[in-house]
Every structure is written in C-alpha cells, then in structure tokens.
Amino acid sequence: MREPVIRGVGLVASLAYAAAVAWLYATQPQTVAQVTGGFAAIVGAYQVDAVALADGLRFFRGGQFAEARAALARADPAERDPHVQFYIAYAYYREGWGRLYNDDALFGKGLAAVDKAIALAPGGRLVVDDPDLQMHSADELRAELQRGMTRDASDFNPLRVFRARK
C-alpha cells in the first residue's frame, strides 16, 4: 500500500518540475523578480507596489520620465502588470518625442514596453482611463511609436515644428 503512494507522489513532483521548466522555457524571465512574480501571478498572488506606483505617476506627471520609469520598474519588478508597462512605454514616448526629430532608441524601448503591455492585457486590449493622457489605448500608443520611428518625406516638412506632443 505504501509503494503506490510513494510512486504517485514522485510522479506528481516530476510533473510539477517539468511544468516549471516548461514555463521557464516559454516565458524566459531575465531576473529572479520576474521568476517569482510569474509564479505569484499564476496563483493570483502578484501585487504591484502601490507606493512605488504613486511615485512613478508623480514623476511622470512632473515630466521626470527617467525617474518615472525607475519608480514604475520598482512598482512592477516582474513586469506582469499591463497598466504599469503602458506608463513605462508612455514615458519612453514622452522623453523621446522632439519637435525636430524623435529619439529612435527611446521609441524602440517604448515599443517593446507597449508590446509587453498588450501581451499582458486580457484579450490583448488595454485602455487606461487617465485624463492627463492624450492617448488612452495601447494600440494608439503603439501606432504613434511606430510612426515616430519611420522615415518619410513628411519628416522634412518645416511645419512639423508646430506639431503637438500627445
């Protein structure tokens, strides 16, 4: 009677280990925080740090975008919250936007962050209800970042200096 129980426990442990290895292979987390946050999200225990999120939003609204990204990264170390990733992408957009040219490196990082936000959002659709923002959906932000990275004849239009940042 004892031998089948031991074999059953061994089988369950082996399957759990295989599932953990498959999850690690599929998601390829880069840090220990991403690993622990991913496992916490699977069981529904992942929480965003509210104090760091409030700091990040305060920096964001004050125009301190590098500080905002650092605080938002502290708020979501596992990179599992779509709203935080949206604000990180928006901070890259705001810092990279320029009247004469856009910073392609910052726009590229913003594009990666907004793609992560879209992947994390339920159904792939993310809308942020923030009256301080001019773009409320991740799709709008993604399109604006992509548009900023393309080169075409409109880049040489002198009236471009008068365009407004979103």
CATH class of the domain at 47-162: Mainly Alpha
Order of helices and strands: HHHHHHH
Helix-residue proportion: 55-70%
Overall number of strands: 0
Q: What is the C-alpha radius of gyration, as a whole number of Å?
A: 21 Å
Distance between the termini: 69 Å
The helix count comes to 7
* Class per helix and strand makeup: mainly alpha
Please state roughly what percent of the residues sit in beta strands, choosing from under 5%, 5-15%, 15-25%, 25-35%, 35-45% or over 45%: under 5%
Q: What is the annotated CATH architecture of the domain at 47-162?
A: Alpha Horseshoe
Kindly report the average pLDDT value: 86
Question: pLDDT under 50 segments (min length 5)?
Answer: none
Largest sheet: none
Give the CATH topology of the domain at 47-162.
Answer: Serine Threonine Protein Phosphatase 5, Tetratricopeptide repeat
Q: So what's the overall shape?
A: elongated
